[in-house]
From TrEMBL, chain A:
One GO location term (cellular component): ATP-binding cassette (ABC) transporter complex
PANTHER family, A to Z: PUTRESCINE TRANSPORT ATP-BINDING PROTEIN POTG (PTHR42781:SF5), SPERMIDINE/PUTRESCINE IMPORT ATP-BINDING PROTEIN POTA (PTHR42781)
Name used for this protein in its record: Spermidine/putrescine import ATP-binding protein PotA
Residue ranges constituting the ABC transporter domain according to the UniProt record: 18-248
Catalytic activity entry: ATP + H2O + polyamine-[polyamine-binding protein]Side 1 = ADP + phosphate + polyamineSide 2 + [polyamine-binding protein]Side 1
Uppermost EC category: translocase
Pfam families: ABC_tran, TOBE_2
GO molecular function terms attached to this record: ABC-type polyamine transporter activity; ATP binding; ATP hydrolysis activity
EC number: 7.6.2.11
Organism: Roseovarius azorensis
Automatic annotation (TrEMBL), chain B:
Swiss-Prot/TrEMBL GO biological process terms: transmembrane transport
Cellular component, GO, one term: plasma membrane
Topological category with respect to the lipid bilayer: Multi-pass membrane protein
Boundaries of every ABC transmembrane type-1 domain copy: 78-284
Keywords of this entry: Cell membrane, Membrane, Transmembrane, Transmembrane helix, Transport
Protein family per UniProt: Belongs to the binding-protein-dependent transport system permease family. CysTW subfamily.
InterPro entries: MetI-like, MetI-like_sf
Compartments where found: Cell membrane
Protein name: Putrescine transport system permease protein
Transmembrane intervals: 81-101, 113-131, 143-160, 166-186, 207-232, 263-284
Organism: Roseovarius azorensis
Length: 374, 296
């Protein structure tokens, strides 16, 4: 079965829906967005991920039209958006603060945008009911926003932004207040909506797992810059910097000096320890400082030294984090370097192989780690 | 017990400063005029014992109220007061709302200054401020001088001693009572609501009508009552700025007391005024209650 992969960003023919061209946004002398150039394609599910205050909301607000870029242009479908006011953009935004109208009921809140389009009454009613059903708010339709819970409010905000079925939907932390089950259901609903309507989503989230689940591409931001924008798998497996590797998921960063050998580099990371070897396409100078990013699940833990692995180190278990299906072992090497290793809990807890203070061997293959310059 | 003690204080206050004076006024309104000190009968003579009390109560009657109903001066004054108060309240709203709106949308560091400018007139005597309006509005006043100098008019306008002057005086005096509650309602409003409205397809103007106005409703209602209620009984402004055409019950009341020395009729006028005011006062309280509930 030949399924075409959805990767318009790799297709030079594809026309982006949104283009940021050298966009800078300053508040006074504070630079919130720093000279960003990137594209978002139609039908994408583009997730913005980054620490608090890195400029995610600012990015969304510029797309919605509430902030004008200080420099640069934003194009939507090839058209410069600068002169177009928010109410004329085929863009709807779900606000981080929800911004529900306190004097209107849940029903009227959701119907608000539809009424502005002057749609017939029965069409509006049908659409609102559909949205209520989607967000499971039917029995709260008549209530005012202050009469419902935080999670319910968040769903009203989501329903209100979805109601108009815009070309571009901006969701600023749409599921932060939902419980895990409802969040997952909503994620699948969103993906479903996206499949059906072809809406382009830009979504801000603090939840990495969520970003990984729903996004076609994840953009990791820091200090007003997108550090890396790529598919969830690439972000995870091939981070372009220590920052991205560290931000997404669990990782051990081992600093060292690189020396070319074969298809990769030997990394000397501590006196008296064997060098580590990592295969890579990256080109480094001899003796250059580099960093090995090692995901815990790619590190095996064993009592005996394995014979067939390139990289083996010995250490002592300092801590064990029990995650249910997995356990993360924090192992300290003689030089003080900590390495995280993950193993599936195939046995009951009481019959676990390793325990605190045990001396163990950690090993990984020469392609398991990512070699980064900084 | 502590609860009771807490409530007792305001109750005692109300009793001493409102209920007792009101009962005295009510009693006088049921008395008859007399050439005496005090200028009404009967007066309670406790030395005559039970007999005296019986005689006192049997002498009270509703004649003054009947008189109010027969002489059309009184009910015309009530109607006219209500009318003037209503129109003046509307005018104050139309002047006050933009001011409150401007204040609420001013940059943060400007707001305390603007707030002070609104309250500043209270630091001067009310009477002096009304007198200065006489200086501005009279035929030789500053306004006429300015307009003549600009060449807008060739003969001076008569504004003082007309209803126009009364409206100007009322709007000027009561403006802060309108501005402050509206300002506080607007200031509490979350700016992102307007952005959300715009995002959903509203123009700025539409968003103002659909979001800003409904959300400042309690402030508007509070401001209107705060102006309407005292203006009904207003006395100083109509007597200083208004001419003989301006009929207001406060002025009638004053004349009854001090020109005619008819305390019983004057008291009857005051009691009826209070009865009329109960309606808006109760409505005002209901509005306050509602806005407090909405805040929670
Ligand atoms: N109107 C403004 N005036 C001044 N500074 C602002 C303004 N809006 C945002 N900022 C600043 O710009 C930076 C980015 O803000 P933004 O709201 O985009 O952060 P964010 O990434 O959405 O954070 P969070 O995850 O906490 O929502 C912050 O440091 C913030 O203080
Ligand atoms: Mg934000």
């Amino acid at each position: 079965m030949a399924q075409t992969v959805f990767e318009p960003w790799n297709d030079p023919e594809a026309k982006p829906l949104i283009q940021f061209k050298g966009v800078t946004k300053r508040f006074g002398d504070f630079t919130a967005i720093d000279n960003q150039t990137f594209d978002i394609y139609e039908r994408e599910f583009f997730a913005l991920l980054g620490p608090s205050g890195c400029g995610k909301t600012t990015m969304m607000r510029m797309l919605a039209g509430f902030e004008k870029p200080t420099e640069g242009t934003i194009l939507l479908g090839g058209q410069d958006m600068a002169p177009i006011p928010p109410n004329k953009r085929a863009v709807n935004m779900m606000f981080q603060s929800y911004a529900l109208f306190p004097h209107l009921s849940v029903w009227e809140n959701i119907a608000f945008g539809l009424k502005r389009d002057g749609k017939p009454k029965d069409v509006i009613a049908a659409r609102v009911d559909e949205m209520l059903k989607l967000t499971r708010l039917q029995q709260f339709a008549r209530r005012k926003p202050h009469q419902i819970s935080g999670g319910q409010r968040q769903r009203v905000a989501l329903a209100r932004s979805l109601a108009k079925a815009p070309k571009l939907l901006l969701l600023d932390e749409p599921m932060g207040a939902l419980d895990a089950k409802l969040r997952q259901a909503t994620q699948f609903e969103l993906m479903d909506i996206q499949e059906k309507t072809g809406t382009t989503f830009v979504i801000v989230t603090h939840d990495q797992e969520e970003a990984m689940t729903v996004a076609s591409r994840v953009a990791v931001m820091d200090h007003g810059r997108i550090i890396q924008a790529d598919t969830p798998a690439n972000i995870y497996e091939m981070p372009n910097s220590v920052y991205v590797a560290d931000f997404i998921g669990e990782v051990t960063i081992i600093p060292g000096k690189a020396h070319k050998r074969g298809n990769g580099y030997d990394i000397a990371f501590a006196e008296g320890q064997p060098t580590l070897h990592s295969e890579t396409d990256a080109a480094l100078d001899n003796g250059q400082t580099c960093y090995l990013a090692l995901r815990p699940e790619k590190v095996s833990i064993s009592a005996e030294k394995p014979a067939d692995r390139t990289n083996t180190v010995q250490g002592r278990i300092i801590d064990i984090a029990y995650l249910g299906n997995l356990s993360t072992y924090h192992v300290q090497l003689p030089n003080g370097q900590m390495i995280k290793a993950q193993a599936a809990n195939t046995r009951r807890l009481s019959r676990r192989d390793f325990s605190w203070e045990d001396t163990v061997w950690l090993s990984w293959t020469d392609t398991a780690a990512v070699l980064l310059k900084g | 017990m502590r609860r009771f003690a807490l409530i007792a204080l305001p109750c005692a206050w109300l009793l001493a400063l409102f209920l007792v004076p009101f009962l005295i006024v009510l009693k006088i309104s049921l008395s008859d005029i007399a050439l005496a000190i005090p200028p009404y009968t009967p007066t309670l003579d406790l030395s005559a014992g039970w007999q005296g009390i019986r005689a006192f109560f049997s002498a009270l009657d509703f004649d003054n109220f009947r008189f109010l109903a027969t002489d059309d001066l009184y009910w015309k004054s009530y109607i006219s007061s209500l009318q003037i108060a209503f129109l003046a309240t509307l005018m104050t709203l139309f002047v006050g709302y933009p001011i409150a709106y401007g204040m609420a949308n001013a940059p943060d560091h400007w707001r305390p200054t603007l707030m002070m400018l609104v309250i500043l007139p209270f630091w001067t005597s009310f009477l002096i401020r009304v007198y200065s309006w006489m200086g501005i509005l009279s035929t030789e006043g500053y306004l006429n001088q300015l307009l003549l100098w600009l060449g807008v008019i060739s003969t001076p306008l008569t504004i003082l001693n007309t209803p126009t002057a009364v409206y100007i005086g009322i709007v000027y005096t009561y403006l802060p009572f309108m501005v402050l509650p509206i300002y506080s309602a607007l200031e509490r409003m979350d700016g992102s609501l307007l952005e959300a409205a715009e995002d959903l397809g509203c123009s700025r103007v539409k968003a103002f009508w659909l979001i800003t106005v409904p959300l400042s409703k309690t402030g508007i209602i509070a401001g209107c009552f705060l102006v309407f209620i005292p203006v009904i009984g207003e006395f100083v402004i109509p007597s200083l700025l208004g001419g003989s055409q301006t009929l207001m019950i406060g002025k009638v009341l004053w004349e009854e007391f001090f020109n005619n020395r008819d305390w019983p009729v004057a008291s009857a006028v005051a009691v009826v005024l209070l009865l009329i005011l109960i309606v808006p006062i109760v409505l005002f309280q209901m509005n306050e209650q509602k806005s407090r509930e909405a805040d929670q």
